[in-house]
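If you are new to this repository, start here. Below is one unmodified record pulled from the training split, so you can see the exact layout before writing a loader.
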Amino acid sequence: MSQKKTASLIDSIQSEVSKEASPFLDFLILNSKKLIAAAVVLAVAAIGYGSWSVYQAEQFGDAREALGMILAQPDSDERFDSLKKFSAAAHAGVKPAALLALAQGAEDRGDYTLAAASWAEVAALTGDPMRATARMAEANAMEKQGKKEEALELLNGLTRDMPQEFTPALQSDISELAEELGKLDVAIAACESMLAAAEPNTDKTYWQQRLTYLRAKQGALNQGDWR
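And here is the target side for that same chain:
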């Protein structure tokens, strides 16, 4: 009896739809079990995602609180060790902040290897302007390790996509480090690049004086007169 009612119902529906819609109706009838199963799977997935989101939010809150407790402590080797352990497995939401504190702590202790590595991680996990700051800080830490050539290479690589507001500091670092390494052509190019990119109303006195100085130094060195 039930089967007759079901068949009658399907016949009634089919009689109400156009011929063009019939293939779609046939598809729904033939695949109704699969479609229902798919809907159930999607519903379960949505519930699971919601639960996971709540879990993640709770984990982030716990991690933020834990980091706050560490940073609230007076600076000490114990606090620094806690930062190292925490940063290694920190929640993604607080990891950049933990690494930033770790990098600063490492620099304060003269551990420029750890500082450079921490700054590099901060740069990888963040966008500008934090990324730009971190990359320049990484180069500075490398320079303090004695890796001046590598630091200059890193700084030069940043010129391609450095935010405009960081350009003066970047070009200044390049110019000074290049001069220290005896690469006056690079130091001069940094000054020239800065002067070319400067806004019309910008005070260019420092860069003009430095460019004059570097060109004079280069000329004197070429003649063997620089002391």
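Two things worth knowing about this chain: Residues 2-7, 47-56 have pLDDT under 50 and may be disordered. DSSP finds eleven helices and no strands in the chain.
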